[in-house]
Design a protein that fits this description.
about 230 residues; Immunoglobulin-like; four-stranded antiparallel sheet; 2 helices; rod-shaped; disulfide bond; membrane; glycoprotein; immunoglobulin domain; Cell_adhesion_signaling
Length: about 230
Amino acid sequence: MTLPSSSHYTPSDNGKVLTISSLNHTVDDSYYSCAATNNAGVGNFNATFHLQINYPPTTEVIHTKSWTPTEENAVTLTCDITDGRPRSDIKKVTWKKGDITLPTSGRFTLSDNDKVLEISSLNHTVDDGHYSCAAHNEARMGDFSVKLHLLVNFKPSVSVETLGPVVEGESKTIRCHSQGARPAVTSVTWKKGQEVINVTTDSKYSGGTVETPSLTTGSVLKTDAGEYTSTGQ
């Protein structure tokens, strides 16, 4: 293809110098050749020059989809270099959570030329969020990747109210309060001391379920005295 004279392609010095402005690798990566014209005619287009344009990397944040991040554990995120020239010569990788650049100390550890980020001692209140990365090569720093939304699973916080004096023969409800969980609570377990209370088979008790977590006991006896605890899963 014969190049046109335009704002993108500017010849000078009687056509011997070609300036290409605003380089774009998608349109300007190519083989270039030239031919000169004199009174005898046009020479051959023999020698060619392969112009390869460096451009910044594009990235993607990935993590093991089969593993769910859980509070107090660690998670590893990888900044995958999906494009760019050169791709192998990455100078630096920058990580962000939302719009905040992440530190490279404390719970945040970088490895593999900053491409791998490990967050230890996960806490859903501070680590839930959108993570992105950007890589630097010889061309410049690339754009930040599409953000990966990290959600950290955490256990429910359960508390049981303290009871005052209980009159023998009366019915009594021990109230259970559960605050949040991810994923949602699917089962509730009550214990008296170390013994699990089976609310489905023991007619003395009612409640103690996900729908009704508080435990009600009918006709309290002296033998019912003890320490009651509740857990959710």
